Amino acid sequence: MSNTVISVENLSKAYRLGQISTGTLSYDLKVWWARVRGKPNPALKIGQADHSNLVGETIWALKDVSFTVEQGEALGIIGRNGAGKSTLLKILSEVTAPTGGEVKIKGRIASLLEVGTGFHPDLTGRENTYLNGAILGMTKTETSRKFDEIVDFSGVEEFIDTPVKRYSSGMYVRLAFAVAAHLDPEILIVDEVLAVGDAQFQKKCLGKMGNVAKEGRTVLFVSHNMIAVQSLCHRAIWLDSGQLSEQGSVSQIVTAYLRSGLSEDDINVRVWPDIASAPGNETVRLHRISVQPEDGKPGDMISIQTPVRIEVEYWNLLPAVHLHATLQFYDDQGILAFTTGAWDDLDHGLLLQPPVGLFRSVCHIPGSLLNNGFYRVDLVLIRINSTGTYLMKDAIGFGIIDNIEGRLAWFDIVPGVIRPLLPWETKYLGDGDS
Amino acid sequence: MTSQNFIDPDDSWTKIIRPKRGLLDLRLRELWRARDLIMLFVRRDFISVYKQTILGPLWYLIQPLLTTIVFTVIFGNIAKLPTDGLPPFLFYMSGTVIWSYFASCLTKTSDTFISNAGLFGKVYFPRLAAPVSILISNLITFAIQFAFFLIFTGYFALRGTVLHPNGWILLTPALVLVMAGLGLGLGIIVSSLTTKYRDLRFLVQFGVQLLMYATPVIYPISAIPQRFQWIILANPMTPIVEVFRYGFLGAGEVNLPALAYSFGFMLVVIFIGIVIFNRVETTFMDTV
Q1: pLDDT tens by residue, B191-231
Q2: Which of A259, A280, A312 is the last residue of a domain?
Q3: Cβ atoms < 10 Å from Cβ of B132
Q4: What is the CATH number of the domain that holds A48?
Q5: Which of residues 166 through 185 in chain A touch B, CB cutoff 8 A?
Q6: Which of A91, A122, A191, A193 to mutate to test the interface with B (most CBs of B within 10 A)?
Q7: B48: which chain A residues are within 8 Å (Cβ-Cβ)?
Q8: pLDDT 10s digits, A306-336
Q9: Can you give the pLDDT at residue A194?
Q10: Is residue B228 within 8 Å of residue B197, measured between CB atoms?
């Protein structure tokens, strides 16, 4: 027997784009009066079609979304801004009603769309804990039972009888999250609340949520932090423009999602078949440039561990001229990560008199060298003993995905333009001072 | 499949979210479960009102006192309005105390959606908890001011003023209930409409003041010419103020059909209010 605790069927939500109604009663009455007399709607822009009471356009924040969540499952909900994630959570937590479809829920549900909802600045930490607990659905007795635990988790015990308006923003958020974390619902809905507090507290929060999931309760988690999603959730759904784009195992969905995000500037392969119109100058013309995994084809996924090859094909137009392909790698901040060139390429060097014709240079980038993110590559073809012969800016670009293999408990980004895997040794030197 | 294994799937769900809710699906059970929340709202309102004030809860007394003094001076001494033979101070105080409960219930509940937009937009709890908590916290204010009024009444009686308190006093809880109902009903109608039309907020603010002048707060109903009395009597607050004053001070008019009218008016207003509120609360976040 299946243990479905949330069943979402054909859920849709429409919002009116632009102004909702016209804002004032007098104006709406004017519109209504015009309609009664059979006159055109005076609120419409000229040329706009008259749709009864609809001013502006309708946008479907969610359209026919269906999925189910099993008991004890941790489901990640991912998607770009405006994909409908927040709308979905709002409907699930009954903040707003859907336009169509149905949601069935089994069990007590608690949603954290924000921490500290309903905190009153003039009340003390203690008073706010009770108030916030009640707003989130706890009875007074439940809050009392958990009070010490909450205060302990938040780390603000000294200030618990101080009005929260005297709190630092960090203390405020910690107390707020602590209340929320001790809700003990059967289903927990969390939206991006992890974007608060310092790194240490974030880690604590994620740990707490991980425990909730492990205790067999159901968690729905929305975040832009793919690392956090992957470490907390087993399954994920991907919303795209209000529709369910894909659902499946978390690694599969996150990978697909990340790749789609990179593909906008992703130029894996470029070919110029005609030598006359190919970019270049009187010395050299480009024929082809591509980036791919060593054992794949252009467009295949590249993760941190994947060894990558970049192939450059060019026509050498002048006889007896040595050309070196050189690549410059920029990260997505525009920082030059490194430059590499075919400078000590023996095969090429042995040709003392390189003939006119097509050449191919291949650059091999080992796995576990680059960081995750997007890299742009400039191509420079350098004539020997000369400065840049031909420079092509942004010749190629590729994204690298962090699939969190080999991560321990670090959910944040790993800073740096590159992220080489270097040999390390750690030894135990005995206890004590020596 | 055997019949034993068959479970009606709709039965096992604790909650079903659909686009529209039944008109009278009030979720009163949910509201009852949220009683802790209601009491915490009341506590919050009560505490936060006098935090960082010098006089603190004394303001609950200063307010009706000053109003009464101003009314006594202006309407009693300057305009010389009749007071049915009662001491002007007690006459105005009885009117002010009972009127202000209704007025504050109405003005504060009419702001429910706007002032709680941040809260309602982030978390679900029975929305009626907010206006209901306002009724209760106003009830505390009323109780304090009512006690204050009783003290003054006792003082005047000791000084030898002839007052005729009578059995109508026993109706006071019912009067308060009807006022709470009227305030809640009208308040939530207005608050449901203000999610779309902000104009109504301004209307309520001075509308309540104007309504006071159409209620026998500063004049007795006997001072109104017979042919205009129906206007005053159409106001459902009129019988309440009159009965209250008659019960404690023994002057005024008691009219049972009028009281029944107030009660009926309240039921209708509550019904309309809750139906509208119910419709608006599900989607008000999209328009507020």
Answers
A1: 888 877 777 888 888 899 899 988 888 888 888 888 888 88
A2: A259
A3: 21
A4: 3.40.50.300
A5: none
A6: A122
A7: 120, 122-123
A8: 999 999 999 988 887 888 889 999 887 778 8
A9: 57
A10: no
Query: What residues of chain A lie within 8 A of the CB of B14, using their CB?
Result: 105-108
**A393 shares a domain with A280:** yes
Report residue B185: phi and psi, to 5°: -60, -55
Does residue A154 lie in a domain region?
yes
What residues pair up with A324 in beta bridges, in sequence order? A382
Structural tokens at position A318: 């002048």
- Cβ–Cβ gap A96/B14 under 8 Å: no
Q: Report whether pLDDT(B23) > 80.
A: no
Q: In the prediction, which pLDDT does A50 show?
A: 45
Chain B: closest CA distance from residue A293 (Å):
45
DSSP code of residue A38:
T
Number of structural domains chain A divides into: 2
State the pTM of this model. Answer: 0.72
Cα-based angle A76, A79, A85 (whole degrees, multiple of 5): 75
Amino acid in the structure at residue B228: F
Q: Does A102 touch chain B if contact means CB atoms closer than 8 Å?
A: yes
- Domain assignment of residue A424, yes or no: no
Tokens of A144: 């009392």
pLDDT digits (tens, 9 = 90+) for B155-164: 998 988 888 8
Residues A126 and A38 sit within 8 Å (Cβ to Cβ): no
Task: State the residue range of the domain holding A208.
Answer: 4-259
Asked if A68 is an interface residue toward chain B (Cβ–Cβ < 8 A), one would say: no
* CB nearest B48 (choices: A109, A123, A140): A123
Length of chain A: 434
Taking each helix axis from N to C end, the angle separating A125-135 and B35-50, rounded to the nearest 10 degrees, works out to 150
Instruction: Measure B47 CA to nearest chain A CA, in Å.
Output: 8
**Distance from the A204 Cα atom to the nearest Cα atom in chain B, whole angstroms:** 23
Say if A234 falls within a structural domain.
yes
- Residues β-bridged to residue A293: A308
| Number of other residues whose CB lies within 10 A of the CB of residue A163 | 18
How far is Cα B239 from Cα B259, in angstroms, rounded to an integer? Answer: 5
Shared domain check, A269 and A193: no
A395-407: pLDDT as tens digits: 888 888 887 665 5
Give the pLDDT confidence score for residue B97 in this predicted structure. 92
Residues written for chain B: 288
Asked if residue A239 and residue A272 are part of one domain, the reply reads: no
CA distances from A317 to A312, A380, A384, B160 (A): 16, 16, 14, 123
Distance of CA A107 to the CA centre of its chain: 30
Say if the ipTM goes beyond 0.90. no
A332 and A195 belong to one structural domain: no
* Cβ separation B122–A114 shorter than 8 A: yes
Which residue stretches of chain A have pLDDT < 50?
1, 20, 47-55, 408-409
Provide the 8-state DSSP code for A191: E
Residues of A in contact with B118 (CB under 8 A): 117
What does the DSSP 8-state code read for residue A117? T
CA-based nearest residue in chain A for residue B17: A103
- Please state, in angstroms and rounded to a whole number, the distance separating the CA atoms of residues A255 and A80: 14
Q: What is the CATH number of the domain that holds A297?
A: 2.70.50.60
Cβ count near A64 (within 10 Å): 14
A chain contacts of residue B52, beta-carbon cutoff 8 Å: 122
Q: CB-based contact (8 Å) between B158 and chain A? A: no
